[in-house]
Design goal:
By secondary structure, this protein is of the alpha/beta class. Helices cover 40% and strands 12% of the residues. Strands 4-3-2-1-5-6-7 form a seven-stranded parallel sheet, sandwiched between helices. Helix 3 (67-84) packs parallel to helix 4. The protein is globular and about 70 Å long.
């Protein structure tokens, strides 16, 4: 019996060009992996070594009742960017990274842009509030579907974190990073500045967490408060300077995960 090849028009599409398959539940692992690999390719191409991450509300605007936080984030991002310009010109160090949207995120990207540096925006598709701001370096503007992949890129390149006033999203992001640092899942020291002590001490009773035994007293040393850009800048610089002195050719410089040792004899 003779087996005939199917007509050219009936040839099946290769899987990696089949949009119906790529958008199906069966290809979810590929979509997740793409949200790791695509940013990684851009960070390597743009020679981004590490970041300083800014969290904060999308609802704080340049004009309004809490606008001073917008201006403070803008100033702090500019100070950090200008300071980071002194380091190895073959790599971009301590690049300001935000969630890519409006509000505090826009202020951070704007300050970095005004400071003459590259700046990263890790956007995510949401039904409201979230859209890329115009100050992100175009090659470093990303759109995520999966929150956890966006959080990966926030956490694993950051050498410092600044948390401005915010709501559910900011609380979620801050607590995630504090938990990673507290549990030593990030095998690195990270300078963390919580910006706006009056706001944060009203929103979160940190001392009550200690009083009720939910955290240890020493856990409060994982972060420091600041209420003006100059103080925040001075708090961040020593921790960043330690990394600036290290020689490491890996780019981007991922934080290593610290895993507990398995008991002897276990696989």
């Amino acid at each position: 019996m003779t087996i005939q090849n199917p007509p050219h028009g009936d040839r099946r599409q290769v899987a990696y060009m089949n949009n119906q398959f790529l958008n199906s539940p069966d290809a979810r692992a590929l979509r997740i992996l793409s949200e790791f690999l695509e940013p990684l390719a851009h960070f390597r191409r743009e020679k981004i070594r590490d970041t300083v991450v800014f969290f904060g509300s999308a609802r704080i605007r340049e004009e309004g009742p809490m606008s001073r936080y917008y201006q403070d984030a803008r100033t702090l991002a500019r100070l950090l960017t200008e300071w980071a310009g002194q380091f190895d010109q073959n790599q971009h160090r301590f690049v300001i990274c935000s969630g890519g949207g409006p509000g505090i995120m826009e202020a951070a990207n704007r300050g970095a842009h005004e400071g003459g540096g590259k700046t990263v925006g890790l956007n995510i598709g949401l039904p409201f509030e979230q859209f890329p701001n115009p100050y992100i370096t175009p090659e470093l503007s990303f759109e995520f579907h999966y929150f956890f992949m966006r959080k990966f890129w926030f956490s694993y390149l950051a050498k410092a974190l600044v948390v401005f006033p915010g709501g559910f999203g900011t609380l979620d992001e801050m607590m995630e990073v504090l938990t990673l640092v507290q549990t030593q899942k990030l095998a690195k020291k990270m300078a963390i500045v919580v910006y706006g002590s009056a706001y944060w001490n009203e929103v979160i009773n940190f001392q009550a967490l200690v009083k009720h035994g939910m955290i240890s007293a020493e856990d409060l040393s994982l972060f420091q408060f600041a209420d003006d850009p100059e103080t925040a800048f001075e708090l961040l610089k020593p921790g960043l300077a330690v990394y600036a002195a290290q020689v490491d050719l890996e780019m981007p410089a991922f934080a290593k995960s610290r895993n507990p040792q398995r008991p002897a004899g276990t696989p």
